[in-house]
Write a structure and sequence with these properties.
This protein is α+β, with helices and mostly antiparallel strands. It has three helices and six strands; from the N terminus they run βββαββααβ. It has two domains: 1-43, N-terminal domain of TfIIb (Single Sheet); 45-141, K homology (KH) domain (GMP Synthetase, Chain A, domain 3), CATH 3.30.300. A three-stranded antiparallel beta sheet has the order 1-2-3, with no helix packed on it. The protein has a three-stranded mixed beta sheet with strand order 4-5-6. Strand 2 and strand 3 form a beta hairpin. It starts with 8 loop residues before the first strand and ends with a strand.
Length: 143
């Protein structure tokens, strides 16, 4: 693979620690969410993953629309990232579930669904998670 960009981020202190990118643009404290026994007063890995996936998926929608010579307007992607036991309560690990709700205001419903399906094939996050976690896609056109 020809690498176009490499993000360089360090996490210290696990889920209750701190994350910082090598360029200093990302510099955040972390906290456990209430559903996992924490106060939830800071961001967490699931929110960061959701933000990354949503932004990347929106870019994939825009890219696929450009390839198809379609206008999108401002694409909105809401990511809901759930975390839970991987192994049916045996205590051996956790997994994620993602729901992406995508709105493409300048496309009708059918075209929005086609673009979302195409973006799911193109997005690096989708390609990384495919077959590993459940990803539910919902498309909304604006016309």
């Amino acid at each position: 693979m020809q690498v176009l960009y490499t993000a360089d981020v360090t996490a210290e202190g696990a889920r209750h620690g701190h994350v910082r990118s090598s360029d200093g643009l990302l510099d955040l404290d972390l906290a456990l969410p209430p559903g996992m026994g924490g106060k939830g007063d800071k961001t967490n890995p699931e929110q960061l993953f959701g933000a990354g996936y949503a932004a990347c998926f929106g870019g994939a929608v825009e890219y696929m629309a450009l390839q198809a010579k379609k206008k999108t307007g401002v694409v909105a992607v809401r990511a809901r990232v759930g975390v839970g036991p991987f192994d049916e309560g045996k205590g051996e690990g956790f997994t994620l579930r993602v729901e992406l709700d995508v709105t493409i205001p300048e496309q009708d419903q059918a075209s929005a669904e086609e673009l979302v399906a195409a973006a799911h094939r193109a997005c690096p996050y989708s390609n990384a998670t495919r077959g590993n976690i459940e990803v539910k896609l919902t498309a909304h056109g604006g016309k």
